[in-house]
Structures are given as C-alpha cells and as structure tokens.
Amino acid sequence: MVYYTMPSKLTEKQEKILRFIEEFTGEHSCPPTITEIAERFEISIGTVQDHLEALKRKNFLRQKPNKARGFELVHRSSGIPIYGRVAAGQPIFAAENIEGDWNERDKGTSGYFALRVVGDSMIEAGIFEGDVIKVKKQKTADDRDIVVALIGEEATVKRFRKKHGKTYLEPANAHYPAIRDVAFEILGKVVELRRKI
After folding, report:
1. Whole-angstrom distance between the N-terminal and C-terminal Cα of the chain?
2. By CB distance 3.0 to 4.6 Å, which of 48, 147, 152, 169 could disulfide with 158?
3. Which is the catalytic residue, given 67, 78, 107, 121?
4. pLDDT tens for residues 109-151?
5. For residue 17, what is the enclosing H or E element?
C-alpha cells in the first residue's frame, strides 16, 4: 500500500479521492476511470472531473492525454520513500523509482527506506506478498536479523545467517534453499512491516 502525507490545501473529498486513486493504482497497476471514481463515491462524473482538475492544479495528478485512465499520481517525498519491489522468492532488481511514501508524520525519516515484497519465501517470518517493509540503512547485521541484501544489481529480503565464520542468506520457507557461496551486500535491516487489511 502506498502512503502519502496530505497537505491541508486539499479538501476532505479531494483527500479521499486521491487515496482511492493511490490504492486502486497499487492494486491494479493503473488508475481508476472517472466512472469508477464516481461509482465509488456515489457522485456525478462532472463532480469527479472537477475534483480531478483541482488535484491536477495542486500538482497531485498529472494528465496523460487520449486515455480512459488518463492521469497518474505525482508522488511527493514527505516520508520514507517506498522503492519499487523486493523479491522474497527470487531476487529481482530494486527499481529506483519511488512508488510513494511511508508516512512517518513527525518522526525522523533519514536513514530509512521502504520496499514492497514480492514472493513467498519469507512467509514463515510473517512477511507476505504485497507487504511493505521499513528498512534501516546499515551495512552489517546480527545473526538471524531479517535484512535486505543486494546480490549483483538485484535486491532480496532474507534472514542473515552467520555460522562457523561463514555468512549466507536464509529464506523463511522450507520450499526455498539458502543462498550460499554468493557475494552479497547488506543494504539494511527490516525493522517494521505494513500490510493492507
């Protein structure tokens, strides 16, 4: 789920519509149509268009011409950035495009980032497909810490293990083997998780 801080210049209805667009886009990989927004809030298409125009003027949406789903979110860096996705099955490239913000309100946000999980290799640790994990940036970890590690140019979330002077990455799913004898770099330690219920 994508998180935003809503500035006071948005009306209550505009906030709700923006959050609906954000959640719909996260679930369907595309924004809702004007009709879908109208049905969700039981308002007219004209009223939806007015709200969308206001959101565009306030720089929360960007217009994409000649498309039924002809707008996209303009992301704001008001919290901890959520970067792409991270694999919990097989490592995938951690894209440097920001999906949204992990809203921390008044808490400090420096030194952290967030990633969205793909796959099921950490389910026994309570980390599931679609979860967003908050990660504290650090280059080291203790045995059994859950970390985000970089293997080549690809990121993965696994349990860091250190035994007999050797380090490796261990999944929390009996169907996946440990990642051994492969060079990796620790990007950070997982410290919190959010899930859309």
Report:
1. 10
2. 169
3. 121
4. 668 888 888 889 999 999 998 899 999 989 999 999 999 998 8
5. helix 12-28
Reduce the DSSP state of residue 118 to 3 states and report it. strand
Q: Is residue 121 annotated as a catalytic residue, yes or no?
A: yes
pLDDT at 170 over 90: yes
**Catalytic site includes residue 29:** no
pTM over 0.85, yes/no: no
User: Token pair 């940036």 is at which residue?
Assistant: 137
Average pLDDT of span 63-81? 69
Residue 38 has what DSSP assignment? H
Unique residue bearing structure tokens 């140019």: 153
> Which amino acid would we find at residue 191?
V
Which of the residues 78, 134, 158, 189 is marked catalytic?
Answer: 158
Higher pLDDT, 60 or 6: 60
Retrieve residue 83's tokens: 């970067």
